[in-house]
Write a structure and sequence with these properties.
Layout lengths: L2 E4 L1 E4 L2 E9 L16 H24 L8 H13 L5 H11 L3 H17 L4 H5 L1 H17 L24 E5 L4 H6 L5 E6 L7 H9 L3 E3 L4 H4 L5 E5 L4 E4 L3 H21 L16 E6 L5 H6 L5 E5 L14 H14 L5 E4 L14 H7 L11 H6 L1 H14 L5 E5 L5 H21 L7 E6 L2 H5 L1 H5 L4 E4 L1 H9 L17 H16 L3 E4 L10 H6 L4 E4 L4 H9 L3 H5 L2 H5 L4 H14 L14
Parallel strand pairs: 3-4, 4-5, 5-6, 9-10, 9-16, 10-11, 11-12, 12-13, 13-14, 14-15
Antiparallel strand pairs: 1-8, 2-6, 3-7, 7-8
Helix pairs in contact: 1-2, 1-3, 1-6, 2-6, 3-4, 4-6, 12-15, 15-16
Length: 605
């Protein structure tokens, strides 16, 4: 039966494939692909866990007190029977052999299949046995977590390419939620798209989805409950619609749209090496946002003239609680710097917290984990300053990488001058330690992210301390409008067109330029073509975005006349509905006669 699910579009395009469900569990489950050589060892891990749980259940039954209710032995017998049922263990082995899932993922996938079968049973007693199955699986997962693990650590080795294990059909990933670090495990992914029940347009899960450049829909509520394993699914990343088991006519229509999208990408790729210069001769810098050193070659290929944001926190995540040391970080930063072949690389210090937690928990972090609102708690520079040893390690690693190319340092979520001063003191101490150790480094420019309204309102104080500023529009919108950007319940209130947001951005750009300091935008607005001309009118000349967005933004830059737009800027900023006002300006300028200056660059695409 065909049906539709609606959510929020966060990464454009169309994906078509069979559903792969990542079931939620009270036990954290790692999801990764294994290579052929590890299939039998994963099955052995599962078998060992089954035997361990069987021993536990048998011992429980043996040691039951005489006064125990008669139902308890019978319940333990049911659990033992489920434990050895081929529908659970046999089918789990098939997930491992056929799809090359790790044992925990395979077990969770089969639980999802069986749980749906129980839900469809008419007999109330049989339907309630689903809870017994879930308890058995939870015991198995806990046993595997206790036993010898072969879990995947991306920072220490290469992942097997899941495309080798996919079979002929493309796959789409469906889950209640996917942590950003887990998504990065699918970077060389067999998945053509993904869907989550929760999340907002600028949650970090959505941002990393865009970094994979695959269609995605988040905030789809019950998607992971109503879509079944191996259902055919169409993800419309432009409209935020998911079509399950589409008719042949609908399927063909979306395949046609896929082909059209590929043609459009090929057309835009011709702009890769064209300088980004507006019609009136203004040069614009288009930079790339990256998560890992391996993303740098893709940034060059897309035509980026540098890295405007290296999100260093992804080096810290998905490591089983062990943080990267100074040397490991240095090698990662150096790899990115060298890959950019002399172009600048802006490295943001670790931005941990909110929807990007670490597995390792210090005392401070444990308090933070149980905070009522983690987005307002110990995160970003606040976390770094609370962990001075870790922070100096990262600063030393970044400074050492500066000996291999142009590096700039970026500090996230600065809101107090005291934080800025403590950061600069930590940097001075890191330089002193490197000098004493005889390790080379160069002076780096230090910038602050403007993502808290307080930073925008007191920018003058920060400009006296920092060399440049970068506007993080995702958090700036979140904190200005008091919206949790990861919460789908209030996602409709997240509005980059809000007059207060646009006025803060315009004020920040104007004040930085007046002080002679560089200013860039590295949030999602930089890669959204709807805002390109407006940001240019505000005076922005440096945009940083995912590499896949560079070509479409460059096209808008090449067709823009910044002087004509600047003359209409106040019309947009003073409007109650800036989006409608911006559309009116676009229509007016498109219909008005214009004389293209001789020096302007004109490119037809």
């Amino acid at each position: 039966m065909s049906f539709q699910v609606f959510g929020l579009p966060v990464s454009r395009g169309v994906a078509i494939g069979r559903a792969v469900l990542v079931a939620s569990s009270r036990v954290d489950v790692a999801h990764y692909f294994i290579d052929e050589s590890r299939v039998e060892s994963e099955i052995a891990r599962m078998r060992a866990a089954r035997d361990a749980v069987a021993g536990e259940l048998t011992a429980l039954k043996r040691d039951l007190p005489a006064e125990a209710p008669a139902e308890l032995p019978a319940l333990l017998d049911v659990h033992l029977m489920l434990l050895y049922d081929e529908a659970l263990t046999g089918a789990t082995k098939q997930w491992i052999r056929d799809r090359h899932y790790n044992a925990e993922w395979a077990l969770s996938a089969q639980l999802e299949v069986l749980a749906r079968q129980f839900d469809e049973m008419e007999d109330d007693y049989l339907r309630e046995r689903k809870a017994d199955l879930e308890q058995v699986v939870e015991r198995l997962l806990r046993a595997m977590a206790r036993g010898p693990s072969t879990s995947f650590t991306p920072a220490r080795g290469a992942t097997p390419d899941p495309r080798d294990f996919a079979g002929e059909d493309p796959l789409v990933l469906i889950a209640n939620d996917i942590a950003p670090a887990d998504i990065l495990q699918f970077k060389r992914s067999v998945f053509t798209g993904f869907i989550t029940d929760v999340g907002g347009k600028t949650s970090h899960t959505a941002i990393v989805a865009r970094s994979l450049d695959i269609p995605a829909v988040v905030g789809a509520r019950e998607a992971s409950r109503i879509i079944r394993q191996d259902d055919w699914v169409v993800i419309d990343g432009d409209a935020g619609i998911v079509i399950v088991n589409p008719s042949p006519i609908v399927l063909e229509e979306y395949r046609f749209r896929q082909r059209q999208s590929e043609l459009e990408r090929a057309r835009l790729s011709r702009l890769r090496h064209t300088p980004a210069v507006t019609l009136d001769g203004e040069r614009v810098e288009l930079l790339a946002n990256i998560e890992l050193p391996g993303d740098a070659p893709g940034a060059l290929e897309a035509g980026a003239v540098g890295v405007g944001l290296f999100r260093s926190e992804f080096l810290f995540m998905n490591r089983g609680g062990e943080l990267p040391g100074e040397d490991e970080q240095f090698e990662a930063y150096r790899a990115a710097v060298e890959a950019m072949k002399g172009l600048p690389v802006t490295i943001r210090t670790v931005d941990i917290g909110a929807d990007k937690p670490l597995e390792r928990m210090s005392v401070n972090e444990l308090r933070h984990e149980h905070a009522l609102n983690p987005a307002l708690g110990l995160r970003a520079i606040r976390w770094s300053l609370s962990e001075p040893g870790m922070f100096r390690q990262q600063l030393r690693a970044i400074l050492r990488a500066s000996a291999y190319g142009k590096v700039r340092l970026l500090i996230p979520m600065v809101a107090h001058v005291s934080e800025a001063r403590l950061t600069l003191e930590a940097l001075a101490r890191a330089k002193q330690q490197l000098t004493e150790a005889g390790k080379p480094f160069t002076d780096v420019e230090v910038g602050a992210m403007v993502e808290v309204p307080a930073a925008a309102l007191m920018l003058g104080s920060f400009l006296r301390l920092f060399d440049y500023v970068s506007i993080g529009t995702n958090d700036l919108i979140q904190y200005t409008l008091a919206i949790d950007r990861a919460d789908e319940a209030v996602a409709y209130l997240y509005d980059p067109w809000h007059p207060a947001v646009l006025q803060l951005i315009a004020r920040t750009i104007a004040e930085a330029r007046a002080a002679g300091k560089d200013v860039s935008v590295c949030g999602e607005m930089a890669g959204d073509p709807a805002f390109t001309e407006l940001l240019l009118a505000m005076g922005l000349r440096s945009f940083s975005m995912h590499p896949s967005q560079i070509a479409s933004i460059k096209q808008r830059v090449l067709r823009a006349d910044t002087h004509r737009w600047a003359a209409r800027l106040e019309q947009v900023l003073n409007a109650e509905d800036p989006m409608s006002a911006c559309l009116e300006v676009k229509r007016a300028l498109a219909n008005a006669p214009t004389a293209t200056p001789a020096a302007a660059v004109s490119v037809s695409v």
